[in-house]
Design goal:
With about 170 residues, the chain is mainly alpha-helical. Helices cover about 60% and strands about 5% of the residues. Helix 1 crosses helix 5. The chain is globular.
Amino acid sequence: MVERMTDPVERLGPQELGAYFVLMEAVSLLQHQVEQQVQADGGLSYVQFQLLGRLVGADGPLTMTQLADGVVYSRSGLTYQAGLLEKAGLITRGPSPDDERATLVSITDDGREHFHRVLPGHVDVTRRMLFDSLTDDDLDHLGEIMTRVRDHMRAQPPRSAAPRKRRPPKNN
């Protein structure tokens, strides 16, 4: 007789699985519409729009690490996106006077102007896709729930704190 092994991984229950799939689908639908809008209105990727938004809201320059942690993006991907924004004249990058390992990023006047040109369309898409279907009470609950979830997730070390994977040496 063959004995069945039990699965050591506890599966998600139907309620958890349902909530997970609904959340992921809603996020994907919203993000797709936002990506379409920021590309059409400003020639920006979603990440570039997020970077400009973070810089507009900051009290001065931010480090690349702060930006990577804030937009939850890889360091290498962020470097590429920042390079495109810098080439377009929307941001500047330079060494930090306080930490020789850090690169400071600042938004330019053109970058601030560009962000504010794209923002009304972003607000429209966000309101139409997300907020129009919610009551004020729903919005309060959603804000409370998502703040709790985000804070729980942020309690983990940021991605930028993870050691970089070393590539194996090439054999020539």
